[in-house]
From TrEMBL:
Xylose isomerase-like TIM barrel domain location: 25-234
MF (Gene Ontology): isomerase activity
Top-level taxon: Bacteria
Keywords associated with the record: Isomerase
InterPro entries attached to this UniProt entry: IolE/XylAMocC-like (IPR050312), Xyl_isomerase-like_sf (IPR036237), Xyl_isomerase-like_TIM-brl (IPR013022)
Pfam families: AP_endonuc_2 (PF01261)
Spans traversing the lipid bilayer: none
Official protein name in the record: Xylose isomerase-like TIM barrel domain-containing protein
Amino acid sequence: MLTTQDLTLAHLTISATPAQTIEAAAAAGFGATGIRICGRRPGDAFATPVLNNPSTISALRNQATELGVRLSNVSGYQFYPETSIDQVKPVIDATAELGVPILVANSFDPDESRFMDTFASYCELAEKAGIRVALEFLPYSGVRTLEAAWRVVQVSSCNQAGLLLDALHLARSGATPEHIRLVPAERIVFAQLCDANPFSGAMTDDALLLEARGARLPAGEGVLPLFQFLDELPVNCEIEYEVARQDMRGKTPTEKARVAAADAASFMARYHARQHGMEVL
């Protein structure tokens, strides 16, 4: 049975600095964590600069090692029409220096052909650095569906590129867990787990973004088909818990992480019980 030690803490769950995220993950018993190392656009302010900052990179690596937390993935700059490879290369360099094996990519470029070219170049540089790129589709972005994301990855011709599957984004894009079968297992880099209420109102980009960043529910407390989602993932797929709870906004990063750990452990215990034909409470 998966325990909290087997799960990854998503940086969005606690929205803290990289150092605070690592500390909180360790305190809550997560075995790994994802970290954000810069803003979403080149030039955005960021509380603790990591890019082109060897001393900070070294400190983060040492902290993770000392606390026994594996650095799973890095979120860097997202891709917009004006984003260039030269601007995002420092993200690849920092990720390699941190020793992190996965880079998450998101596109907000409405020109799919242009993003395909940029993504292919990004993946080529990342592959040379020993890093996998996990493209995450967002139903309010330039790559809105599983099918579109898989098409971009295929066009990239990069063997190490793959997808990040988020349970919320899969549902809001109109797909079901069965659609995951469209993607070869080896191209699913990792998955993110959360729950959500039934969607109400107009499904606009702004509404979907607000829900994704601040209105998710703990796993098992909403309507998403999470048992089926987990069933369709590859064996031993890494699971990252991504739930930014509104009722925890005033809490410390460690408090948020501990609540997330308890929520995740409770849900995974129920999933394990269901797998083994036991009563699910």
